[in-house]
Specification:
This protein has about 110 residues and is of the alpha+beta class. It has a domain of about 80 residues: Lipocalin (Beta Barrel). It has one helix and eight strands. The chain has an eight-stranded antiparallel beta barrel with strand order 1-2-3-4-5-6-7-8.
């Protein structure tokens, strides 16, 4: 009877450890969801660049009449954008803003507007 009790305690302990590991591995998207506007000196004055991050992991770049879809997720506290061409763009976050370095454009800061 003593062996069964120890086995049950060990199984419970392992279950709790596994649950804790799963919770820590999954990062919440909630703080990222929303619409952001680029604040960059390199963009032409009449051009507005918008980035939208949806709750389901879909997103879109909007610039003028163009809209480019992408998917996104959070890993190690960073925003990861999967482009249609297979590339990954990494963004860092700070107080209602996301900083992304785009190839050929340089750093862009997106401020949350919604």
């Amino acid at each position: 009877m003593l062996k069964i009790t120890r086995s049950c305690h060990l199984a419970r302990l392992l279950s709790v450890c596994l649950l804790l590991m799963l919770l820590l591995a999954c990062e919440s998207r909630d703080g990222y969801i929303g619409t952001y506007r680029a604040e960059a000196d390199k963009l032409p004055k009449q051009t507005e660049m918008i980035m939208e991050l949806k709750a389901n992991g879909d997103g879109a770049w909007k610039m003028g009449d163009e809209e480019i879809p992408f998917t996104w997720y959070v890993k190690s506290g960073e925003l990861r954008i999967n482009t249609k061409g297979g590339g990954v763009i990494v963004g860092s976050t700070a107080a209602n803003a996301i900083q992304i370095i785009l190839p050929g454009t340089g750093p862009l800061r997106f401020k949350k507007i919604h």
